[in-house]
Amino acid sequence: MQRYYFFTCSDFLLPKTYPTSIVDMLTLIHFFCVSLQLGIIINNTTKKMKEINFTLSCGEGDYIQLIQLLKATNCVESGSVAQMAVSEGLVKRNGETELRKRAKCVAGDIIEFDGNRIVVKV
Questions:
Q1: What is the reported pTM?
Q2: Which residue, 17, 15, 5, 72, is CA-closest to 45?
Q3: Are strands 63-65 and 104-106 parallel, antiparallel or unpaired?
Q4: SS3 content of the chain, % helix, strand, coil (to 5)
């Protein structure tokens, strides 16, 4: 599968490589839609991740669900955006892509999403 990288030019996102088949075109359109809905701009440059420390309180038990964690740390605007981000594979948990929306995040877990690095602590 060919990957597409984008750079910003004025207010437009321009592809550096162009699709050669209908499947590539549909993949590109899907990527655009998801990126625009989540407000993500992808650059080829590596940016420093913002670290967020999240402390579990006694009332929450030993864990917090992944989508609740994204909402609690203000990484997303709503639960539906959090669910979409997880289902599209944009969230990493301990370095691996996490596709379970209600995955139990426990102390010591590191969540990466949209330039944010969330460290779960007790």
A1: 0.60
A2: 5
A3: antiparallel
A4: 30, 30, 45
